[in-house]
Amino acid sequence: MTENLTIGIIPGDGIGRDVTRAARIILNLINERCADISFVYKDMDVGEAAIKKHGSAFPDETREGISSCDVILFGAIGAPHDFVVLSGIRYGFNLYANVRPIKSLPGVEVLQPDADLVIIRENTEGLYRGIGYTDGDYHVNLRVFTQAGMERIIHFSFNWAKKNNRKKVTFTHKESILVHTDAFMKELFYEIAKDYPTIEADDMEVDACAMRMVMKPHTLDVIVAENANGDILSDVGGGIIGGLGFTPSANIGDNLAMFEPVHGSAPKYADKDVVNPTAILMSTKLMFDYLNRTDIAALLQNSLNQVYLEGRVRTYDAGGNSSTSEFAKAVAEKLDDLWDNNLAYNEVNE
Ligand code: IPM
Ligand code: MN
Predict the structure, then answer these.
(1) Strand 71-76 vs strand 168-173: parallel, antiparallel, or unpaired?
(2) Protein residue whose Cα sits closest to atom 11 of ligand 1
(3) Nearest residue CA, atom 5 of ligand 1?
């Protein structure tokens, strides 16, 4: 039986247009090749394009459109619309877990070639909830959590670790200072850890974790972080694996998920067809994992790995001079070959 899916595509601003175009090249091929899955696209606007059409950066048309999709693929959004758009989707649809794998690709020159860890950023609470006030001399942003929110992200992290054959979950905090949130959450973390006896549980101060990520990333596995801390750790992670061109993400809730590169809209490169689409292609890979099509996800990852290993087609940030679309086409060609050879489960160069 064919599974019919609606994939919402939101290019957003700047290079979001370039990278979603690249992702569609891959999606079109998968749609063509895969007999038991079939998808249609639903194109939606946010940011400048949405202001032109609908008068708002995150219009009702888009909010309602998102509700009718199975999954969403997002390009990029920059200031000044980033918060309204991303919070509209992440908070508005309760996509509470932001999963951000940090893994070096073979053949790419990076600071830490053995890095292979995953940051799970709490996506709806904490400092970035934007709750605060100004009162005279006091300028306050509150770091607000709920116990339900804490429990939900801790359970998610252990379940994700189990499902993805990860060995350890590390809870990050500043428990000595943030007693109402972090000290309390740490206790919850170890309590909940008892439900997952096959996964090792440990904790670290978040600043120490940032340094460890730079110096000894192979000692880290799955990291759970509060919203703002997770944001910062993600860019540290990007820095050790070649930059934000290599950092995908999945924003996951109970009924919907949005897949998005961690990078921003880089307006100066917009519509030039030069940026690296790897982060969105790996986000697309995460989308197929989420859809329980790990066979397609593995094929896509292998195709990317092979294109990097061969090294002929690369964008400027990875030492080449190919365009965004040339890179996407090279990955699509590789995917087409691998599909024929049915190499889905032979992880290349793992
Ligand atoms: C990210 C980005 C966003 C965030 C910004 C653009 C609001 O930095 O996804 O990491 O902080 O969540
Ligand atoms: Mn960020």
Answers:
(1) unpaired
(2) 231
(3) 82
Handedness of CA 128, 133, 138, 144 (dihedral sign): negative
Taking only the tens place, the pLDDT of each residue in 185-197 is: 999 999 999 999 9
Q: Locate 166 and state its tokens.
A: 């990860």
Cα(263) to ligand 2 centroid in Å equals 7
At residue 343 the predicted structure's pLDDT band, cuts being 50, 70 and 90, is: low
Give the model confidence (pLDDT) of 246-297 as tens digits.
999 999 999 999 999 999 999 999 999 999 999 999 999 999 999 999 999 9
**pLDDT (0 to 100) of residue 348:** 47
120 alpha carbon – ligand 1 mean position (Å): 14
Is the model's pTM score more than 0.85?
A: yes
**Strands 37-43 vs 71-76: parallel, antiparallel or unpaired:** unpaired
> Which residue has the least CA distance to atom 1 on ligand 1?
262
Distance CA 46, CA 58 (A): 5
Evaluate: CB of 231 within 6 angstroms of ligand 1.
yes
* Alpha helices (H) along the chain: 16-33, 47-54, 60-67, 82-90, 147-163, 184-193, 206-215, 227-240, 278-290, 294-310, 324-341
Task: Map 276-330 to HEC letters.
Answer: CCHHHHHHHHHHHHHCCCHHHHHHHHHHHHHHHHHCCCCCHHHCCCCCHHHHHHH
260 lines ligand 1 (CB under 6 A): no
Residue from 82, 124, 280 whose mutation best tests the ligand 1 pocket (most atoms within 8 A of CB): 82
Q: Pick from 77, 231, 235 the residue to mutate for probing ligand 1's pocket: most ligand atoms within 8 Å of its CB.
A: 231
346 pLDDT higher than 90: no
Residue 143 banded pLDDT, cuts 50, 70, 90: very high
Give the closest residue to 161 by CA, choosing from 128, 117, 219.
Answer: 117
